[in-house]
Design a protein that fits this description.
By secondary structure, the protein is α+β, with helices and mostly antiparallel strands. The protein is 40% helix and 25% strand. Strands 1, 4, 5, 6, 7, 8, 9, 10 and 11 form a nine-stranded mixed beta sheet that branches. Strands 15-18-22-21-20-24 form a six-stranded antiparallel barrel. Helix 9 crosses helix 13 and helix 13 crosses helix 24.
Length: 894
Amino acid sequence: MRTAEIREAYLSFFEGKGHLRLPSFSLVPEDDPSLLFISAGMAPLKPYFLGARPIFGGREWRRVTTCQKCLRVGDIENVGRTGRHNTFFEMLGNFSFGDYFKKEAILWAWEFLTEHLKLEPDRLWVTVYEDDDEAYAIWRDLVGVPEERIGRFGEDENYWPGGAITHGPNGPSGPCSEIFYDRGPAFGTPDETGPNTGSGDRFVEIWNLVFTQYDRQGPIPGPGILKPLPQKNIDTGMGLYRVAAILQDVEDFYRTDTFFPLIQEVARLSGRPYEGRASVPHRVVADHVRAVVAALSDGVTFANTGRGYVIRRLLRRALRFGYLLGLSEPFLHRLAPGVAELLGDFYPEMRENLPAVERQIRLEEERFLETLEGGLRRLDALLAGLRPGEVLPGREAFRLYDTYGFPLDLTVEIAAERGFGVDTEGFKRAMEEQQERSRAAMAFEREIFKRGAQVLEELYAERGATEFLGYGTLEAEAEVLALLAGDESLGEAGPGTEVQVVLDKTPFYAEGGGQVGDTGEIAGPEGRFRVEDTRPFYGGRWLHWGRVAEGRLAVGQQVRAAVDAERRWAIMRHHTATHLLHRALKLVLGEHVNQAGSLVAPDRLRFDFTHPQALAAEEIAQVEALVNEKIRQDLPVEVRHTTFQQAMEEGALAFFGEKYGEQVRLVEINTVTPRFSLELCGGTHCHRTGEVGAFVIVAESAVAAGIRRIEALTGRGAIEFVRRTLDGLDALAARLGTSREGLAQRVQSLLEEQDALRRRIRDLERALASGPSAERLLERSQQVDGVRLVAARVEVPSMDALRYLGDALRQQMGSGVAVLGAIIDGRPSFLTVVTRDLTSRLHAGELVRRLAALAGGGGGGRPDLGQGGGKDVARLDEALARAGEIVRQMLEHA
């Protein structure tokens, strides 16, 4: 069966069992700070496992089935090396929210595998938690699995989360039951205790049933208390690609129909055939490009932090392994259409966003390959500084990996070509130290947030989502439901205490959709609380961050919540201007422009968008003028609600990475023909565009490959910016003795004078460097194995002068090599010149790399001209003294 057929068979089967089929959620979690990406099929459904009513399409569904896109990078070093690890994968799931439980889940799993997929029952093994007699009995008595094929294992293997009873976390948990498929002796040897042991890949886990029936409570670490949950849930995951490998009778998922075409294309582009498990680079490239395309298609962009950093790391890792295959030019963007073709039928966003995704990948590739070249230069310098038989230190190899993205395999390969070894154990130690630092930081963050998250989950299950009143009012009465401080839940908070306040309803807008959270005040009968920020927590429960200004605040109090109105109005002006800007960019640059991120704050707006190049000054002026024209027209801004389908039919803009329900909120600018803008948006807005006041673009820059950024001001801030700019121009004009109108001409005159002065300086340097200086150096030349060598320290004012001297030597010596050193700007600099008749035996770039390395630096260049620099001034003369030795070694190996 093809992978698509397996996917459809699963979803159809559970639809037939009364489940609602949902499309895959975005890879980007909604309001869940604990996740960067959706990493399991159940993750988007967390609120319903916690007791929230699962309403879909206006109806409550207790049974749901999905094929969920997932992305994990925790075991990234194993990707390509085993048949069990990959980053982007699809998880088939059927879920029960307080409906059916173990019996139905087990029987349906067996029915689907044996009757619909036709897997041989005798090749299926199962495992259960060691104390789960109920599940054991169902497998043995109702399904008929022989006892010798049912394994019992402890909490590390068959409990979710793994090891939770002893190690935590607190919260919903439960035993699980796994189904394994025995692929036979060709894939390894079994152990008499069952499928969780043995060697090789003989037993493949294809199904995991999680019986969420307990609330784990108690100290962490320590023996937890398992309190039965009022609502028992089922969370099932079936590994689509593992099952596909079995049904397609191939060695692993890399040979399946959704992977192998990509691997074949990698082999074609590189000219290196795929040889199964030995071809790790082919497998890594195919795996990682799928993940990058999936994430970009869901609205993620390359960045130095967060999600953007994860996919940047994946792309760079794929490029590094491509480099091992000889692919030194951008190539991943050429694989993106293949990913969209293989997966686009089920995930249409991959096809719809393909042009923008290709552009982003191409630009990011070009940038990184420049960095990789820097790593090569650094490695050359390190190797040039080694003596024969020495080994490159592991920490240096790790710095190459960490700073330049240089893989250890590539470092080892290049070093071996030069006759050097690499301390791989030292590399591993350095990497483990960094990973330990990272794990410690993550553990600290999880510990700080853990108790607060549990309180919020319990509140959500009991009271539902926060009711937001802020579209219609900036003040409201509310009840304090919780006070959180770090990992504590407080009953009350006194003066100066920093806490997060949870209210049953609020006029405060919680940060989201690019708009910052509101600030203001919460006043109770006994105190006042200053709200410094408002943020969401998944499931719709909002947190008011700040401190108690005076008196006390307590759980259960009735309070008055009031938003800072002036600040909110400033935010609304910037948000409405953002919609105007988005439409203006499309009209000026083209419909390919799409939002890629935004910040809507009281003092500015920031708008990221897809576009392959910097905007010209004329384009910026056009965009700015168009936005201001719409502001002057004082167009109405209407907010209304409709269905998602109706909004799409009307042509509304929606953004991947955002999650939309059945009902959506539309913001329309100009409700009569011609409409100017129509976007799905949950933010707050002006009533008319005239309220924005004025709009001025203050910056345009690059954010990532294929992503540009505009920063702009509105209202009073825009006017103040223009005033400051004009004042600055007047001050500069006065200093240069001209008027504001004559400033441009005066600056042009000064630049021309500066250029003329620089030309005169260069002419003087050329005259000083050539002539008598070159003649005197030639008189001090020596012979090295029949080659004329000039090696000397010289006094020159600049690198240009050093190059002029090198050119003069080349012209006058006829045949030979020149090695020049000088102190320029306080640092040692080197220049090497090789006449054309000797470039087949000596490479000037390689020669200067070896020399500069002796002074703690590096360099490179062409066969006839090399240039480099060092760090240690005291070693300049030593390096020059060894020039003859290095030239002799290079001639011997020519």
